[in-house]
Design a protein that fits this description.
This protein is an alpha+beta fold and about 200 residues long. The chain contains five helices and nine strands; from the N terminus they run αααβββββββαββα. It is about 30% helix and about 30% strand. α1 packs antiparallel against α2.
């Protein structure tokens, strides 16, 4: 949000700079035009919450009887490294295969230890250990990715509170992510979804 406002402010300054000095009346008119342009650009963004602009659940009817629900977020850890955070579940003939969290780091920058469990906490005394697990259709993942069974974690979430995620890395250290409330809300929404007839999209 701060970066967005900085961009709007910078644009506003650039718009002002294109006007040359003139009479007092001209300066008033130019100032009014500048304010109008600023509001025209900024107000639409103010009406959208982070959840509305960043969050969405995608439904993939990949083939008859197979449906996948997916939520994908881009988050940064405490060392400012980028991660793709993908929560998904897949149904085969209306039978749930599982609910998985896939974490994908930037290649060559960070690599999770795919053999160790993932620690997820609410910041209080509530915490979980998510075990590494691949869905039946995934044989392997690249070294910059890992996947975990989060069925119990998501089922236990009682509210849209931020989650602290500790990712074990291949070098022996950990990466720390904070999953914001709007993403947690989306995860809970995804957990409540069931297969329906929806347009076919690209597979996971």
């Amino acid at each position: 949000m701060i970066q967005r406002w900085f961009a709007y402010f910078s644009l506003w300054l650039r718009v002002r700079s294109v006007f040359n000095r003139g009479s007092f009346t001209q300066q008033i008119a130019k100032s009014l035009v500048t304010v109008w342009l600023f509001l025209l650009i900024a107000l639409p963004a103010l009406t959208l919450s982070p959840a509305a602009t960043l969050a969405s659940i995608h439904i993939y009817n990949e083939r008859p009887g197979q449906t996948t629900f997916r939520s994908k977020q881009s988050l940064r850890d405490r060392n400012d490294r980028s991660w793709q955070v993908i929560l998904f579940k897949r149904y085969q003939s209306n039978e749930l295969e599982g609910l998985y969290l896939r974490l994908v780091g930037f290649p060559g920058v960070v690599a999770p230890n795919s053999q160790k469990s993932l620690r997820i906490a609410t910041g209080s005394s509530t915490q979980w250990q998510a075990q590494p697990a691949l869905d039946p259709q995934t044989q392997s993942l690249p070294e910059n990715a890992a996947q975990y069974d989060v069925t119990k974690v998501i089922a236990d979430l009682a509210g849209d509170i931020p989650l602290q995620v500790e990712i074990p890395l291949a070098n022996g250290s950990t990466a720390q992510l904070v999953v914001p409330p709007f993403a947690v809300h989306e995860w809970r929404d995804l957990n409540a979804q069931f297969p329906t007839q929806s347009p076919t999209q690209s597979p996971l």
